[in-house]
Write a structure and sequence with these properties.
9% of the residues are buried. The chain has helices at residues 2-11, 18-21, 23-48, 52-77, 79-99, 101-127. The chain has 139 residues and is mainly alpha-helical. Helix content is 82%, strand content 0%. The chain has six helices and no strands. The chain has one domain (2-101). The chain is elongated. The chain crosses the membrane at residues 26-45, 57-74, 80-97. Keywords: Membrane, Transmembrane, Transmembrane helix.
Length: 139
């Protein structure tokens, strides 16, 4: 709906294109729409799996990207109100980041443990300390 209003605003009168007047905002909008699409697709994929921590994090990211896209369109249509809504979105972003701290910490610690295990396995292989295996693949 906001995209249609943007077309109407730019089509009437002698107003230049938003790419001319608000180039950075339009580029941010395009990048944000791609990020929103990717996050939403990831949420749909993770919804079927049992990874609830990653699902929760990606769902928050998709919600933030979706609202940011709407806010950027509002900023193009009504700049003063757009700045106000962007400030409100920034407060909401901080709230979401602080609420998801434990989830992010669990995910990061799990990732560090996984990488540490893989690095130890790699170092053992490089040193030749891996146990010889017989033909069955058993040590």
């Amino acid at each position: 709906m906001l995209g249609v209003l943007l077309q109407v605003k730019c089509a009437t009168g002698n107003l230049p294109s938003p790419f001319v007047t608000n180039y950075n905002t339009v580029v941010m909008l395009i990048v944000d729409l791609f990020a929103y699409t990717a996050a939403l697709a990831t949420v749909k994929i993770l919804q079927a799996s049992n990874s609830t921590n990653v699902y929760e994090l990606m769902n928050n990211i998709s919600l933030l990207c979706g609202t940011l896209a709407s806010i950027l369109l509002v900023r193009l249509l009504v700049p003063a109100f757009g700045w106000f809504t962007l400030a409100c979105w920034a407060v909401y972003f901080v709230i979401i980041v602080t609420k998801s701290y434990r989830t992010r910490r669990r995910l990061c610690s799990a990732a560090v443990c996984y990488v540490r295990g893989k690095m130890e396995e790699l170092m053992m292989r490089l040193k030749g300390a891996e146990e010889p295996q017989n033909q069955n693949g058993m040590p």
